[in-house]
Amino acid sequence: MVSTAEDMASVQQHRDSAVKLEVRDVAIRYGSTTAISGINLDVRKNEIFGIIGPANAGKTSFLKALNRMNDFDNAMSVDGEILFEGTNISDVRNVYALRNRIGVVFPLPVGLPLTIYENVAFVPRLRGIRDKAELDVIVERCLTRSALWDEVKDRLDSLGSLLSGGQQQRLTIARALSQEPELLMLDEFSIAVDPVTTMRIEDVLKELKPEMSIILVTNLVQQARRLADRTAFFLDGECVEIGDTEALFTGQVEDSRTTDYIEGRFG
Amino acid sequence: MASTGIIENQFLETELNVSAKRTETLFKILFMFMAGLLILPVLIILTTLVVKGSSMISFEFLFGNPTNGMTEGGIFPALLGTVWLVGVALVISVPVGVAAAVYLSEYAPDNWFTRAINLAIINLAGVPSIVHALFGVGAFVIFFGFGTSILAASMTLAVMTLPVVIVATRESLQAVPHAFREACWNMGATRWQTIRRVVLPNSVSGILTGVILEVSRTTGETAPIMFTGAAFFIPVLPESVFDQTMALSLHLFVVSTQVPHVPEALPYGVALVLISMVLLMNSASIALRMHLRGKKKW
After folding, report:
1. What are B22-45's pLDDT values in tens digits?
2. Which of A100, A162, A172 lies at the smallest CB-CB distance from B188?
3. What is the CATH number of the domain that holds B65?
4. At what angle do helices B265-294 and B204-220 cross, to 10 degrees?
């Protein structure tokens, strides 16, 4: 809750600033095991922020902390500050509203066992939209933007969970878009998706950039190079380096491990 | 050709292979025989009942009152009484059982309280039905003052079958992949919104199956209703849940052992009706399960 004029001013300032998400000294622990620690980074508005790094670098745990999914996991504890639009998310009472503003796409596509239509209408319905015409518009818009509309427009009543992997992943993205998210987080979205669909989704992400911030966690360093404005390199629970993507890929690095990873010498 | 000879030699049976094969066949037949034995009791029971009891089945038998000291006439009060008892038991146990299972599966943290509930469920399932009967007398008939009535008997049945409903429901909830829940939570749905829109609709078939199996089990129970609401002989039909009633299972017990000069076919006829009700409900449950399983959802 914003109480004083000073706080009000600071929120206003954040609305104007270019930063969407600030992460300050974040550490994530599972019991006595530390998954990641000492993470400091900013995600700007209208940028694609890439996170690369080998398995077990703490990338997925990091995403879970950003929309407070750690609330569901008793073993997981998050220290440090995560500011979304200037508000510390651990102070957010209405955590559902926070999650609603952040879209998430998982490595394995999750088409809910509802019709394709209801998959996309899920969040609008939760928001209380009942008008069929209004829902129709939202469903068509989201499916079109996720490059799935042409393939499913004649069978919106079939189950979303029975689509092929690539189609389900685009359905998942359509569902995330129905949230009208300010931040879209994709966790290795292309793992279960064919190369053609991957390229289509990458095009979708480029089109979305002017409207939202996107965090792209990926195992494919070339994907980060194609899409990300800036890229962070995570390794063994720490953030080795954050930099302009092109710079990192052309060898302008502070830490040689970054180049080693990008060029495939380990990981 | 020489090379073919070598290949064939590789697959020649040795002494060891032959004996292993023989043992394999032996054990297969043994296990099959044991499994096949299961059919026998069902066949014998059904054949006996049909042969000895089917002559009793008629419209008057199903829809008439018992007459002449229960040695003649029909079984309608008992038939209707069983429907009452089972129906009211369901109305009580299904909402309570499903709600409890939803809590245990979807909300409960892993702590001493949850473990205590789970332990209680296991133990409740293990309590003998005659103990449930005495509990019913103490709790519902006397303490709550329902008297010997349909309500008291049905509540006793409900308590007895709660573990079945809870376990069946919990298992069908757990069969819904966790990824669906996470996807909903990530979009800002509450637990209840997730349960109502995604989890429950996809576990309804399992829950229904459990409920029908519970019904078929409740239908045949005798001990729990004997002291709590089912009567030896009442020529009038029950009008509310506070009346006593006859019941098929108890009626079978009575005409088989308690009443002199009952024609031999009568108990068989009653048993045939009772078992037909149970089999009918079991078949309905199987048919429902097959129908819903046919629709693959993920």
Report:
1. 999 999 999 999 999 999 998 999
2. A100
3. 1.10.3720.10
4. 170
